[in-house]
Amino acid sequence: MPPEPAGAAPQGAAAAEVPAFDVLAELPSGTCVLEASAGTGKTWTIAALAARYVAAGVDLGSLMMVTFSRAASQELRTRIRQRLERTRAVLEAVVAQQTPADLDPVDELLTTGSADALATRLQRVSAALADFDSATIATTHEFCQRMLDSLGVLADTDPDATLVENLDQLTRQVCADSYLRLFGTRGGGPEDDAPRPPWLSFDDALAIGRAVVEAPSLTVVPEDDPDPQVSGRVAFAREVRAEVARRKRLMRLSTFDDMLSGLADTLEHPVHGEAARARLRERYPVVLVDEFQDTDPVQWRIVRQAFHGHSTLILIGDPKQAVYAFRGADVHSYLEAVVEAQATHTLSRNYRSDPSMVRAVMALFEGSALGDDRILVRAVEPGLPADRLRSHSGRYPTTPLRIRSVEGRPGRVGPVRQQVQQDLVRELGTLISSDAELCLDGAWRGVRASDVAILVRAHARAEELRLALAEAGIPAVVNGGRSVHASPAAEAWVTLLEALVDPHQRSVRAAAVTPLVGWTLNRLAAADDEELNELRRRLRSWGRLLEQQGVAALLEAVSGEQQLAARLLRLPGGERELTDLRHVAEGLHQVRTTSGLGTSALLAWLRERIQQAHADGDERSRRLETDAEAVQILTYHHSKGLQFPIVYLPSGWDRWLDEDTGAVLRLHTETGERVVDVGGPQGRGRAERFARARSEDSGDDLRLLYVALTRAQCQVVAWWGPSARNTPASALHRMLQRERTRPHPDPEYPPDRSPTALTGLPRRLVALETVADRGVAVRRDGDESRAGELRVRRFERQLDTQWRRTSYTALTAAAHGPAPVEAGVASEPLRPREDDEPDPATGTGTAAALRPDEPSSDGRLGRLSPLADLPGGTAFGSLVHTLLEYADPTADDLVGELTRLAAHELARLPAAGFGARQLAEALVPAVRTPLGPLADDLTLADFRPADRLPELDFELPLAGGTVPGPSATLADVADCLRRHLPAGDPLAGYPGRLAEPGLSEQTLRGFLTGSVDAVLRLPGGRPRHLVVDYKTNWLGPRDGTPLVLGHYTAPALAEAMMASHYPLQALLYCVALHRFLRWRLPGYRPEDHLGGVLYLFVRGMAGPETPRSEGVPCGVFSWRPPAALVVELSELLAEGPAAGSAREQEVPR
């Protein structure tokens, strides 16, 4: 390696040699810093240390491992479990006097020792795996939350506060209020009331407010500035920060920063702090913190106060990859920890990159200080034996670092960017069609598009490159990055929801040209009134579907009716668009399911998410539109932690440096304190602070270049171009020109040398190539000579046409006459409820022929039904179900409770002919009717809320669900009923009806969905649980005869039950309750805890004086199917007829 230029490496302590870490040496104690480099196996080292500590006798629950992100903590958890499982396997082999193969050095160490020592280690590792869930492997925020929970009363936090991801909405409100107060009644002058434009724009005010709220621990500067506008900006910042904190407390909101500062304050509390620190030290004698370069001063305060000097504290990080300052990370905390640590070691062997790739990066970087004299690029050794990229013909250059230089005099940046982009597309096409080969998994193979990653600085650049590659026939995807709510798909959903809320002419026209509807502008221009009216009707239909069945049903309808997938996939970028539309729909579905939002509220929620897209979390990052072989395009930040065989860097030369526009700055002062400068360009000391901030940004840029170059396993292809301002400011230019010692780039420094004039870099490691100015060769379908003969792929897989997601309604649809029924994937409860009575206009229904019993001694059977004057139909049934679901039957003013709910529902779904109070007064008698002997004659009003579970939703796997297995039919269910129902059972005749043609052959395979109206729990030593279902069926004649209670006697209800196939529904609900209790109720015994079924026909329930028929009040159908029947039916549905018949005599506990 050539000698470095004079002064390239820092002098003094910062440049001192740091010993390499030996994972086989004595386990660390005290505070130890492990300084990693890219590819040096941080996660492997942490897992190895965890296994060694466990084998040495440290309980796994006493180990704490903290990392930066959820994905990293999940990977760390997986790797530690795998390491422990591997350790257990090799110890078991050695204890059994076998010779395990493929031992790594840690295995060899742990399998060395006496037989007793090995047996002890095996016992410890086995115990750790058995209790692996007790391991604390968490993100920083999860760690803080657990610590606060474990400290209990010692932590001064509000346990009922709502944790929010960000305070952007609240900050905007406070900024608007403060801005209006400041400028709304004055002219805007900081010294007088003279009418003139405000000296602070609202956009600048909002930027100031966001900056100080997002960084609550930073000092606001400049302080005591004599300029009234500067001091006014500082005062505004402090006011917003204080007001946001005040409102946040009143609203009982909490952020991750509050969690961190709360724990830090607890540990430093003058009274409780020592007890809190002692409790944490006792709980965690060994602590490992990963990605420590991405910590901040508050997090370092917590770790230092709790563990430094008392527990074994191992801090693992790579300061060269500290690139998250914009998120609040502060590499100075890492550097401070290095000073305070008892020992510092390096991880000095790279296992990611080829040997020549490692040496090429070292040739460019070694000895450089990346933004701070203490952040050095130290030498690392290759960990792999040989390079893994080759070209048989030699026509493809395999030099590990290729610099492609655009020649010419410095000028405007735009043409240079275009030339770089064209050359990248051409080079990528050449690579994929060349004879270049990779050997990543032990066998050589041709290079594929998916072996290449293109890393860029900005998301916009990523999309430009994707389109350019697509035009050349090269598949590419933009991986991660922007929130899906910042995509055009989110705007399309907003436009559609606006039309669903209010389908007026403008919104209908706007929705028509969204990708969801798919009209072209030409079609819209030519559309006549009839076409627009038809679209308006369709939008109204979709709106009803959204309200009744949700976003998933809406998307299904739109996809089918508008041929969404087929239409979009024909277009360039269609996969991306379709993926985004579905992703946004999934978010809408989730929030509607969890929060019950209506269409207008969904629209408001989505608008807010679009506004806050810059702060959205990972779950809303855009998904890949395809998993096919494709080039990956990522930003530098998103690539961190990843690796790729070949990396392209088209923008390493391209960095714009702004002049001071007065933007908010975050920087460190000369004393090391981090501050936020809101004073604008004229603030006192601004020039010095701006220079410091620019220098820190330049350090970030150098570290980003290091991150980008070290993602490559085999090769990096980077571009350099001449531009007057962007090139000299870039990190790649500074490294190539050996300008590593300059504190920050000088934008006026002319790039008078191209990389081709450089000397000192070894040409076998760094190739300097000239970009030819020629067009791009478009490659449509790849190199046919390499692809081989094309053959038609045939679909030979057998589809399971019996598998479906079904419900009671769909199962019995064939028995309900010719009326059309929504088929297939419906779930219960349906809106409208299809298991209730038919609309009067559609026919009399199966129960219309029923008549009350012959005259009896109880004259009360002739009393009018309380609901006799109210209409029938599915809409009315849905309304009654909603009221009984949400009303509190124990309310003192039950009429008022029901009236309030009815008024709300009728306002949303108007019904003619009756009012809210009339309906409420008609339902009160049903709530106060005794439920018969099965319920100990209690009423609905007698059950406390704790003993009443409304709307028990379920989804039961049938015949194994997603796992293939033998399936049953309704004929098998009928056979099961025959075996268990005694002759005197009120439903003894039902098996024959269930076995009728059209029903008996219905296959039970897939999933059964539904919702039990209510489950009631009867008190007692062994509480019984009752399935309750509400029915509004009109069982009287349709000829104008008044509806009386005698129409709802026990025999009439039994016949109505069987005619409508409600016994099947009741049994399915009992199976759902059985499976629910089996998992949730300790000591569950079906024969004791399954109490039976109550079908409440509310039109026949008239209050405490309701007449009885066969000992049960009218309107109440009570049935207790044998527990053995429910258990066997559950097993029949789950495993098929063989399981059911084999256990027909058993009642498992």
TrEMBL record:
Spell out the PROSITE patterns in the cross-references: UVRD_HELICASE_ATP_BIND, UVRD_HELICASE_CTER
- Region (Nuclease activity, interacts with RecD and RecA) residue ranges read 802-1149
Which Pfam families does its entry note?
A: UvrD-helicase, UvrD_C
Compositional bias annotation for Basic and acidic residues: 737-751
Q: Where is the composition biased (Low complexity)?
A: 840-849
Gene3D superfamilies from the entry?
3.90.320.10, P-loop containing nucleotide triphosphate hydrolases, PCRA, domain 4
Query: What's a single GO BP term from this record?
Result: double-strand break repair via homologous recombination
Which free-text remark accompanies the cofactor? Binds 1 Mg(2+) ion per subunit.
Residues of the region (Disordered) are: 737-760, 829-866
Q: Residue ranges of the UvrD-like helicase ATP-binding domain?
A: 15-354
* InterPro entries attached to this UniProt entry: DNA_helicase_UvrD-like_C, DNA_helicase_UvrD/REP, P-loop_NTPase, PDDEXK-like_dom_sf, RecB, Restrct_endonuc-II-like, UvrD-like_ATP-bd
**Tell me, what is one Gene Ontology molecular-function annotation carried by this entry?**
exodeoxyribonuclease V activity
Q: What is known of its domains?
A: The C-terminal domain has nuclease activity and interacts with RecD. It interacts with RecA, facilitating its loading onto ssDNA.
Q: What does this protein do?
A: A helicase/nuclease that prepares dsDNA breaks (DSB) for recombinational DNA repair. Binds to DSBs and unwinds DNA via a highly rapid and processive ATP-dependent bidirectional helicase activity. Unwinds dsDNA until it encounters a Chi (crossover hotspot instigator) sequence from the 3' direction. Cuts ssDNA a few nucleotides 3' to the Chi site. The properties and activities of the enzyme are changed at Chi. The Chi-altered holoenzyme produces a long 3'-ssDNA overhang and facilitates RecA-binding to the ssDNA for homologous DNA recombination and repair.
Name of the protein described by the UniProt record: RecBCD enzyme subunit RecB
Which species is the source of this protein? Auraticoccus cholistanensis
Tell me the lineage of the source organism. Answer: Bacteria, Bacillati, Actinomycetota, Actinomycetes, Propionibacteriales
What is the gene called?
recB
